[in-house]
Prior knowledge:
Three copies of one chain form a homotrimer.
Chain A: H1 3-17, E1 20-24, H2 30-40, E2 43-46, H3 53-59, E3 62-66, H4 72-87, E4 92-95, H5 103-115, E5 120-123, H6 125-132, H7 151-168, E6 171-174, E7 179-182, E8 187-190, H8 203-218, H9 221-246, H10 250-262, H11 266-272, E9 275-277
Parallel strand pairs in A: 1-2, 1-3, 3-4, 4-5, 5-6
Antiparallel strand pairs in A: 6-7, 7-8, 8-9
Amino acid sequence: MESYKKVIDLLNVLREKNPLVHHITNYVTVNDCANITLAIGASPVMADDIKEVRDMVSLASSLVINIGTLNERTVESMIEAGKRANKLNIPVILDPVGAGATSYRTETAKRIMDEVKLAVIRGNISEIKTLYGINTQTKGVDASESFSSDINELKKEKHMAMNFAKELNTVVAITGAVDIITDGNTVYSVKNGHPIMSKVTGTGCMCTSLIGSYIGAGKDNITAALAGVVSMGIAGEIAYEKLAENHSGTGSLRINIIDAIYNLSEDDISRRSKIDED
Amino acid sequence: MESYKKVIDLLNVLREKNPLVHHITNYVTVNDCANITLAIGASPVMADDIKEVRDMVSLASSLVINIGTLNERTVESMIEAGKRANKLNIPVILDPVGAGATSYRTETAKRIMDEVKLAVIRGNISEIKTLYGINTQTKGVDASESFSSDINELKKEKHMAMNFAKELNTVVAITGAVDIITDGNTVYSVKNGHPIMSKVTGTGCMCTSLIGSYIGAGKDNITAALAGVVSMGIAGEIAYEKLAENHSGTGSLRINIIDAIYNLSEDDISRRSKIDED
Amino acid sequence: MESYKKVIDLLNVLREKNPLVHHITNYVTVNDCANITLAIGASPVMADDIKEVRDMVSLASSLVINIGTLNERTVESMIEAGKRANKLNIPVILDPVGAGATSYRTETAKRIMDEVKLAVIRGNISEIKTLYGINTQTKGVDASESFSSDINELKKEKHMAMNFAKELNTVVAITGAVDIITDGNTVYSVKNGHPIMSKVTGTGCMCTSLIGSYIGAGKDNITAALAGVVSMGIAGEIAYEKLAENHSGTGSLRINIIDAIYNLSEDDISRRSKIDED
Lengths: 278, 278, 278
């Protein structure tokens, strides 16, 4: 089956199943994460107290861990919820926001990787390189080493992602100018999206929430990661076109992204998706 | 006086008085709660540290307690602020977000009900049933057992709400396809709103903030609860109509709701409100 | 050079340099602060755990401390980050949200002023009076004693701001109907903005984030404060004009403000800025 058709199928399952996605996430983009989860057709729940995360995750179809504004209290909750999810066979998605920027972030992300079995890790190239053990420089949490469109560089990065996915027995999704999604065997490259998306905070976090929504629907981890990345990219394109048409700006772009996800159609996916499979 | 006229009168008082509404609330929808409080004509203040909640609530006209992202630290602040408000005769509104989903939420909501005298409790049907002691299943914090439009079911639920209100000597507001607002004697049913509102996070929280705004203006608890519920329902209808006209989505819906509350007119209320009094 | 030209020059440097602005801020308006920082051309990073704030601030070009939802944990992080920034010669901007409302806020703001060398303090007139030691009454954190447009009152307030700036060897920015920006020698008055801006939460916080963005670009503290205040005022005007044209409301206003900052042009600044220098 062609890749974009798998995305369409999973979107239909998602909208039918309306999976509950438990998030332990940051307070910067949490509202956007909740609203994009609702827009795609899933249900979000945000709960981070150690006293309830085990109970909450057991009701959920997936768990999203996002370390964007981590602190000592919530890190313990992330680990607890993650372990519980593992026991119950509920897939866990990690967004290692800002790994590489501070040693606390890097170490926390690595600790989560050690203690929790992850279904998907989604990050930008510097975050993923950091976790894989390549020294890199992260400039804060929103900015990132720009993803090279140079063919050789891209090849190297695919190679790294595949090795990382194999070692951890997980799916690795790197988002940038070209997105890479791999489980160590299959590798997808996606060329959807628009550079202006980096001018809105949370497009990465929202992408992770979409992956959490798709994985909660089907549990085919690589298709879920692909679907989340492609959906976000297409929504960004539609949102930018509306911005350009209305001469608006990045405040509107953020709203347009949620609107585009809410209205995401089979036709949008089949006409717009730019997926290559190696 | 007809019910909708009471709502109009209270809206006018609110806009004249500009009451300060102290919120101890969740970090998911807090920005929307603040902006809708401003939009209706009140002033929000969000403060949750135990060191200042007593001082802050004493400046306020009402206190909104929302347990959406409760934690050990903020629960103590909720109780402290609530007790202080009781002493000063400042009305307290509880939004028991997700009660029933985890025992921590259920117990915390019940603890607040035990230790703080509440002017209004606003929740969906599963949250209210949970607090009343009927076993129910909550799917996360945003979703809820859908409110039956079956006449017999609705009758039973009104009965439950009245008993609950009498027992606690409070106003109970249950929001859903049909909203029920009762102080144990009078019962209002409201049929405003649109199903799409459940596709935006925080419409429940915002409704509670509106009740807090109205109650800060007048302190007639049942009219304030009615006014909050009706205002939110009407805003949802107007917001949906604009969405449909512009072929936008739920990102825009959220903005449209705040816009509609800002522009809420006597005419909107008299033409649109669908209130039945038993 | 005329004042507005300095603002234009600094905006151009900012967009070229893309400075990283570390925020320790409140959870009510944090998303808007991040998005406006991106919209003006800087990069935001929000991090508040004591274990990482020293590392994070050392990567940044400026530090914004906003006490809007302060708590015991984050106050310690603010102090630690501030001290570290001082050591590294990274400018620190304080937004003393709600100082005067509770003694905890007043004391915390004063403690920060004592322990951290501040490049700029931006607040409304009651917050600044409180910090300067004049008893005043603050109604919550968003509302404020309205800024007198009375000439004599304005003179007194300029005098107070100058003394305060001299004593603390900092830049003081007071925002209101007329904004005052002073380093104790130069005093700018700015008459941009629109009263409706007070009907959206976070316009003050966003202004502070803009100052943090400008100061990260150039480190000329008074020009950065002026540029932040003027940019916010102009964005408010443009946003209001769009609201009026579309008959929308304050939900849209908030989006329009971010859009206007994203599109802020040399022409907007030269045509619209209303800056007087004493």
